[in-house]
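Q: Got a minute? One more chain.
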Amino acid sequence: MRRKRLTSNSYLKKLFIVIILFSCFSTYLLTTFIGGKKNNMMVLEEDEGEFQSNLYHQLPTIVYESPTDMELGRSFENKMTRIHDSGQGVTVLFIPHSHCDPGWLSTFNEYFEQQVIDILNNVVQLLVQDSTRTFVWSEIWWDIADELTKVRVKLLISNGQLEFIGGGWVQNDEAVAQMDDVIDQITEGLQWLKRTLNVNVEYGWQIDPFGHSSLTPMILSRAQFKGIIGNRINLLTLQRQRLNQEMDFIWQPSRSSSRRILTHLLYDHYSYPSSYPYFGDLEIRWEQREFVSNLFFNLIDEMRTKHKTKILLLPFGNDFAYQKKDEYLFNEQLIDYMLARKRQNGVADIRFGTLREYFQLFDKEIVDNQIGLPLYTHDYLPLVNDLHQPWTGFFTQFSLFKKLVRDTSLLVKTADMFYSIAMAKSSSSSFSQSDDDIGQLYPMIEEARRFVALTQHHDGVTGTARQFVMMDYRDSLNIARQNSYQVLSSSIEYLIHLEGETDESNPYEFRDLLDLNEMQPDSQESFSLVFHNSLSWKKQHHYTLRIRLNNTQLLESVQILDSTMEPLLIQIVPMMPSDIKELDMQNDYMLVFIVEVPAFGINTYFLTLDSQHKQNTPKLSKVSVYETEKEFQSSKHRALSTRYLDVKFQPNGFLSSLSKTVNNQAYNVLVKESINQYSTNFSGNYVFIPEKKMPFQFLDEYKIYAVSGPLLNQVTVASYMNNINVTSTMVVVYHRLYNSPIDYKAEKKGVPMVTEESLELGYSLYGFTNLETVFNFQTNLDNDHSNLYTDNGQESRSRIKPQNNNDKINFNYYPVLNYAHLKDNDLQFTVFTERSHGVGSNNPSDLEIMIHRTTLQDDSKGLEIPGFDYSRVDAKLYLSIDHPNRMASFEKQLSLHYSNAPIVLSKQLKSNIYEYLSEYQYQTSFFNDRLPNNLHIHSIKHFNDFRRNGQALLNIRLSHLMADSQASQWNNQLSNPISLNLNKIFNSDYSITYLNQTDIAFLETQFINMIIYLVQKDFNSFYRIEGNVSKGNSTTGESEFGEETPIEILNVHPFTGLEAVDTHDSINLKPLDIKSYQLSLKYSSDISQSNLKFKIARIQPIPFDNIYTHDFSIHKVSKFPMFFNDVYR
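A: Always. Here it is, folded:
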């Protein structure tokens, strides 16, 4: 090939020579400084690199149009100050990246060992060799083992070549991951990066989650991020935003929040164009350079008209890209080749870049040219990137796993909080050290946090990984669960054991079933039951404890004593169905009683067998069995009543109406409840494509059981195959009403307890082949004034009003994390959940919630294997009816009560209970009992940090529960700002000796220059549609409460949360505010533990397979079926 002669004056030639010499010398110094020995973790393969470098230089030489092009082409140090073409040319930044899922088609460890380690090695080596090369990295895969590698990576970061983005432990899902779990996984990632590499992440990188939640800008704006990169949104929405040049916008997560953040949507996807040459060596790829460069120039031409600025971002990578260095070297030569042809293609510059560089250039052009950006206040759910395939199936996929994630997360959170207080107590100078240091448990709680963080991945909690990968996630949760029980057990022993020596052979342990056969009646033996409350309010509600007792004559001897040794009113309920021998549950019962647990504290109860104690009402419940619907139809149990709720049933045992009476005000709604199934031959792990809806087909036997008693009334429907697989085919649906005696001392007179506010609906069923199972609730709410709302973890969001189109309900499905409701002007029907689900509606007054799905076909989204989820799912829903204003005032608090059940640890006592009471503090709260009802404590964590005086540093995150004006029609004070003294949050035994406000991830706030963006217009109206929603061109999720933002308001970017730094005496929270603090607590109490000899007792592991998930469960946790596992790996 003939080379074009360079034409320039002698000055430029000399300058060119100087630049080349300086570049060579700089590269030599860089390589010498960060070169070094190989290590087992990240082997820098120097020989291979030298070989590829030689091959790279043997490729055809690039022909440049002028020496200016050559000078500008490869100078990293000067690229931020380059002078752009004065014409219409655009600046294109290619962002090299590799999207590495921590579990999807392979497990986390398999990916790391087989692919990711090579990518990391390649990235470090390539960047070390040439300072013009860049790379961005998301998610925490880097297990840097030695100081030399750490120095290399830090240098690459400091000179701008390597940028960490996203910041989280994983790239989390945005639809079904719980808010606290998302915050915690981001915290784990950002903390690791800061501690290991001294990195402050500035930009979000959410390029693969299946739709975007408004929760994301809320969290990231509070983590001091300057911008977010998003990707997957509805196809027609994307087309409209392209057309209107709205790929860059200001995202305001809530009407109640002044927080906003700059957001950029990728133009197409995060991968290369479809015809990019993925395979072949450098020479083979180089033969396609003209074709590939034209691909990119055509894409650039398309993009330049769809953006408001001349700064274009193109991701340069794919899933697990750069496993071979050839890929980067080809891309590097391709950029040089495109540079030589830039002017004829209307391009000012093309180069490798980072997100920081992109946003800096973008900000400069926006500010210099006063370009207005649209304000966005909705979310991007659900995802419909094909007009016929809504990604709404994963909202419910692997429902059992979603519950295991939620339960493990709560356990880790509870262990974290009590362990933090134990560390504060242990490190207080006034308290002597024990034999064992409680601090040695830190690695266990850290590992537990990170395993829960791992499952928040967008192919983890979503249930969209291959089945053996889901099992691997479950195994990780099992370790987290066991670690947390160990930490919680030891922390409680340390905190409440007053004197004497701890018994290593008898620790507090988790028991999902108490076997009373181990106790002797009328003896001193008992079980101490320690209830843990992680919420910032007192818990007072019914609790059901599962027990086993073979001798039925001893049932009336069972009693629960409180810490004053007073017996409680109890009710013993046989497991339902109670008459089926194949279930082997004749000796299993639910023990029902009312517990009181102080805010962030513990309370102890005792279970004994005392034949001398009798209560006024029989302890054993009365059970009525109805063999046919006709029998039940004429029975008294078709209507159940308590002081607050009245329920009526259809003849088949399903709900027909629900009424509530509070403060002499009655609310009633007709609710025709049914369970149905969609048949499908097209749904997969991701998408929901129903074909036909039909009633649930119950099996041969169909019985209805009614339970009556002073604390609990219940109607249970059970269906199964007679004499064939009775246990495995059993389907159970029950409705439960809790009641309290009239003379019971309720926390608030005339106000129901949490368990009395709602009708509890429980179900147990297995997966049915190619069927998707749903509950339907048809109400008589006013169609013209009702709408569907679901929560995003922080607040409720309005959804598109249904258009009575049964065939398109899958396009009108939304994720629900904690609650969904329908409401008109006078009534609100609410469903509270204990895990994430898909919720839909095909009529303004109807609500549908999916509870299980089993698909036998792949949906062509990359997984290549069907879900095969035949696991048994046990779950609960809570149904409530109320006035919209009253429910708005405590809906979130009620939801937190349901999703944060007290964790109970027990130990079997062989001695007298009074001896236990003399050695243990049986009841305590670590919080002040007068905290505001609208204040929520999300977490308290310790990161193994200490002050110079040895005091443990704790981290606390708290929030205002209410949205702006949410409770204005019922109790306006709940929506007012909260102002309190943080020192008064804790009880009098603990005083704050140090306090520092941080960002949401407990990192120091960075005071940076703020960019002012002009909000040009609100473009949400462009996407409101009143007709057919099946096309997926709608965005939904406007805040239910709060005032609309005036368009004239300017956006302050990126971090506006610390307008006034809080102090000990002044903690201020506006509606929906979340704030975080680092503090030290000094323990000083009149209760002495100086004689305590503390030893950490190791508890026995209890795997998931050996527990019941619920009080009514007829099976222990089932494994996911492993069909074709070996074939599909």
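A: The CA atoms of residues 1025 and 1034 lie 7 Å apart.
Q: Perfect, thanks.
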